[in-house]
Structure formats: structure tokens, C-alpha cells
Amino acid sequence: MNTEVLIHIFSSIPSWLAVIMIAMLPVAELRLSIPIAIVGFGLDPLTAFSLSVIGNMIPVIPLLLFLEPVSNFLRRWRLWDTFFTWLFDRTHRRHSVRFEKYGAIGLAIFVGMPLPVTGAWTGCAAAFVFGFKFKNALIAIFAGIIAAGLAVTTFTIFGDGLFNYIFQ
């Protein structure tokens, strides 16, 4: 995702709100909102971190609460039932050992890795597929978001400083 495009799209609203909204996006999350907040909007790292964590947590509760009812509703149609059966079987075959062995700690580590295809949105999906209880999933995902936020904030601060030192 092009950061200049996001900065332009959100330039007409206050930067604090833009950071929260970017952190809510499934593709961006705080992995993109923190660098945009610090480098693009000039916010201090603590503010960028805090707003990004808040924004990244906003979709978590609705996702955890509604993934199962939506899945159950969609399973009434054969196409969706086939899709969810395939998804659950495939996910359990590939990842069940890790999630069964490490449980909520494994979920927190998964969410906390600041890599593509990890994060709160995918963590909610994993919590649903593996049948995590709401409270355990919420705590694990929050812990993962904090860990990812700290990593991304640190990398942004030192990465930007290093970049400016080398190229200016």
C-alpha cells in the first residue's frame, strides 16, 4: 500500500483521527499507521504508538463477537459451507499443532510479529478457527498488538534516524 496515497486520502482530517483509521484497516493495521504517524504526520512516537494501538484494537471486539454468527449464517448456502469446511480443515492441518501447543501465547506471538499476513485481523480469524474463548483471544491479541506496536515504533524511530543519517 502506497503511504503517500494514504497520507493524501487522510490529509483532510485531523492527524490523530487519520492514524486511528489507518490502524483499523486490515491491510495496514499499526504496521503502517505508526510509520505514517511519525514520519508522515510528524507525531511523537508515544502518541503514534498509543493512537495506533487504539485504532488496531477497535475492530477486534466486533470481529471476535461476530465471526462465528456470520460464519454460521453463511453456512446455510452450499458454496459458503464448502468454503468454510475447506478453510477450517486446511487451517487445522497446517497450524493446529502450534496453536494447540502454545494456545493464547502462540496467538499473541503470531499477532505480534510485524510481518505481512499477521496482525489483529488475522489473529481474530485464527482465534475463531481454533475456538479460543473471547476473553483469552482478546487478551492475546491485545498483547500481540502491544508487542508489534513496540517493534514497529522502535524500527520507525531508529530506521528513520539511520536513513536520515546516511542519506542527508
TrEMBL record:
Coiled-coil features, chain-numbered ranges: none
Membrane-spanning segments: 7-28, 48-67, 102-131, 137-158
Keyword Membrane appears in the UniProt entry: yes
Record bears the keyword Protease: no
Alphabetically ordered keywords of this record: Membrane, Transmembrane, Transmembrane helix
Pfam families found in the cross-reference section: Sm_multidrug_ex
Database matches in PANTHER family: TRANSPORT PROTEIN-RELATED (PTHR36007:SF2)
Name of the protein this chain belongs to: Putative membrane protein
